[in-house]
């Protein structure tokens, strides 16, 4: 079984009889991130866990461990990159994809958020994915917020790409693509803008 988010397990409605206790005990789980792995354990999956920090590395791990014509079940989100699926299918693996969850974009930032941003009461904005960063920039622009003047903290280089392309200068990137590393950037919010950019060096 493959999962790239804890939501894959948290939002799945597993039938009482499936997977059976024996299958849950033995089924191998390929997961992105420790939170996803922890969620698998919380939902009774006790088999071997193979954990990587991103979908690209997870695909490579799958191809190293699993040989065709093995069958895999991917508990996926509606909005996702196609790379992992493409790699598995190209390698001849029998991949079944079930969409479990969908992250829907907000139509606008809340009045409270717009007011706080306008008054510069928000020190930094966290970005957990490329898509959410793109959505925030679009909504901020619609709300006439100068997002280029904000400090942005991205969980990965890929997540930061839209920030750079839209002219944001004050960007820091987590040393590892996980929430713990992202939160570790918080002290940077107290630095001046120049220090923030130099410390990041656009990793």
What are the key terms here?
disordered C terminus; alpha/beta; about 40% helix; elongated; Rossmann fold; 10 helices; single chain; 5-stranded parallel beta sheet; 3-stranded parallel beta sheet; about 15% strand; about 200 residues
Question: Could you give the topology of this structure?
Answer:
Blueprint: E1 2-3, H1 7-10, H2 21-26, E2 29-32, H3 34-42, E3 49-52, H4 55-65, E4 71-77, H5 83-90, E5 94-101, H6 111-118, E6 125-127, H7 130-142, E7 152-154, H8 157-165, E8 171-173, H9 179-183, H10 193-200
Parallel strand pairs: 1-2, 1-4, 2-3, 4-5, 6-7, 7-8
Structure commentary:
The chain contains ten helices and eight strands. It folds into two domains: 2-101, Rossmann fold (3-Layer(aba) Sandwich); 111-200, 3-Layer(aba) Sandwich (Rossmann fold), CATH 3.40.50. 40% of the residues lie in helices and 17% in strands. The protein has helices at 7-10, 21-26, 34-42, 55-65, 83-90, 111-118, 130-142, 157-165, 179-183, 193-200, and strands at residues 2-3, 29-32, 49-52, 71-77, 94-101, 125-127, 152-154, 171-173. The protein starts with a strand and ends with a helix. Helix 7 (130-142) runs parallel beside helix 8. By secondary structure, the protein is of the alpha/beta class. Strand 4, helix 5 and strand 5 form a beta-alpha-beta unit.
- Residue stretches low in confidence (pLDDT < 50, at least 5 long) are 192-203
Give the CATH level 1 class of the largest domain: Alpha Beta
Strand content: 15-25%
Q: How many discrete structural domains?
A: 2
**Named CATH topology of the largest domain:** Rossmann fold
Q: What fraction, in percent, of the residue positions are helical? A: 25-40%
Total count of helical runs of at least 4 residues: 10
- Mind summarizing the main beta sheet? 5 strands, parallel
């Amino acid at each position: 079984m493959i999962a790239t988010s804890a939501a894959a397990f948290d939002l799945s409605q597993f039938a009482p009889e499936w997977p059976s206790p024996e299958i849950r005990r033995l089924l191998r789980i390929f997961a992105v991130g420790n939170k996803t792995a922890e969620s698998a354990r919380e939902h009774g999956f006790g088999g071997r866990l193979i954990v990587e920090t991103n979908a690209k590395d997870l695909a490579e791990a799958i191809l190293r461990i699993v040989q065709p014509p093995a069958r895999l079940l991917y508990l996926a989100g509606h909005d996702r990159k196609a790379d992992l699926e493409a790699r598995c299918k190209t390698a001849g693996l029998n991949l079944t994809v079930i969409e479990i969850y969908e992250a829907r974009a907000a139509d606008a930032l809340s009045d409270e958020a717009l007011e706080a941003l306008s008054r510069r009461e928000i020190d930094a904005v966290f970005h957990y994915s490329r898509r959410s960063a793109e959505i925030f920039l679009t909504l901020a622009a619609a709300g006439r917020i100068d997002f280029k003047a904000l400090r942005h903290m991205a969980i990965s280089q890929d997540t930061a790409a839209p920030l750079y392309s839209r002219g944001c200068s004050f960007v820091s990137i987590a040393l590892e693509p996980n929430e713990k590393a992202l939160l570790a950037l918080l002290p940077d919010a107290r630095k001046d803008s120049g220090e923030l950019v130099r410390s990041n060096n656009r990793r």
